Amino acid sequence: MGFADLRTWLDRFEAAGELKRIKAEVSWDREIGTIARRSFTTNGPALLFENIKGHQDTACRRLATALLHKRARLAMVLGFPADASVRDLVQYVRQKNREGIPPVEVKNGPVKENIIRGKDVDLLQFPAPKWHFRDGGRYILTFAGIVTRDPDTGCINMGVYRGMIGQRNTIPVLIVASQHGGQTFAKYRQRKKPMPVAAVIGYDPIMDFLSGSPLPAGVCEYDVMGGYREEPLQVVRCETNDLLVPASAEIVIEGYVDPDPKTFEPEGCFGEYTGHTGDVSTPRPVIKVECITHRNEPILRGTQEGTLPGSYNENSMMSSIQRAAIAWNILDQQGVPGIANVHVHPVTNGTNVCVAINKRYQGHAKQVAAALWGSGAASWRYKHVVVTDDDIDISNYEHLDWAIAYRVNAGKDDIVVFPGSFGSPADPSTPLEERDVGKLGSGIWNRVLIDATRTWMYDPKPEWGGRFPPTVHPAPEDEVLVDQRWSEYGWE
Ligand SMILES: Cc1cc2nc3c(=O)[nH]c(=O)nc-3n(C[C@H](O)[C@H](O)[C@H](O)COP(=O)(O)O)c2cc1C
Ligand SMILES: [Mn+2]
Question: Both 297 and 320 in a single domain?
């Protein structure tokens, strides 16, 4: 795909009629978020805001959002035609997630065109939106890749963890313990040392796609991005720490996160990915900003969270591909046989996942659920696992509902609850005291498997030739007869 950064992609979208530049003056205070939501509900264009109230003369004046909520644009970013099927995208992503080309370090790059240090740091120079009227503040990190380095292995990780502007130079962030960034933070906490971080804002959207979804532990997201791009990332060293960041990123915020709770600042509430407003503002670890580097005329990249029926956002569209691909790869790696399809509907973001199997034995569906729930990728997802036979089109709610209606016997182990599991702290169905991240490190999930495969515990008539009653589809020879005689019936 060759060299690509955020600007390249905005140009490509514009050429394809997929970008709207908003030149009218708009407010960062709820107005941008409301316009972005309109794009979600209309499957509308990517948006570049060029005239933001109070930011006509600040260091950063523009904001790009709503790039990936439309499948056609996500397909383009993955190198596919706009009408590519979900299945083709999932198969491609399964393959590419397993490849990698390591980055190369270069001496300089556009991200170093402006370097702001120490006392000069002022986050209010950036048009960070208050996306939703109930949000607790202006969110500068919504689609930033947060870079950390594992102090034991030296391995670099990049994950999307949100952050709100606190003071002029502080960003309280939500990095939960089960995430790779959270696991690295725990190592720094043990050593009683601050964790260096770099927040990369605005680059090849493949960065958003990969850093917002859980690749296996120890896999460096930069390598996988290189694989997707079919060329290594060019990375530059940060000014104030030894982290590496893409050389043509729009903005990089460098700093450190202190594990001492005395340094924590309130974050939230925030319109969550679940489509519900988050709870009260909570004290969170803080990125203390030491330096910001940015391109000339930088573009802030951000996104609005929260999926609703008929209103899919960027995370949900990405998740419908990535979370299915990741689940499928986990099932393969765990040696679960007979996986025919894995489907994630964008509206659940992967909270629900459907798996169609070519059933090999009774208990096969339980193996599917156990493999998924044991994985690190399950920390925010895969709460409800629905398993069907492979005659069911799991991408179709009607098919799924039919299978659940007639192939589920709740009293016979077809509904299995896996209680007290780790899970998302943002799920409003979990009582508040069971998602106190400060105390529990995670939210508590009572996960459920719905085994909607045909049971093998049943003895149908031997002449039926199977383990379950056949369906009422006509016999093939009867279909042939009717086809042959069709014109005689006088029914067109
Ligand atoms: C737009 C967006 C916002 C996200 N916000 C958060 C967040 O605030 N905290 C968090 O732990 N994960 C968040 N995630 C999910 C993580 O980015 C995702 O689980 C990813 O796997 C984290 O990287 P890691 O696996 O290397 O830890 C968000 C994802 C997206 C796409
Ligand atoms: Mn990771």
Answer: no
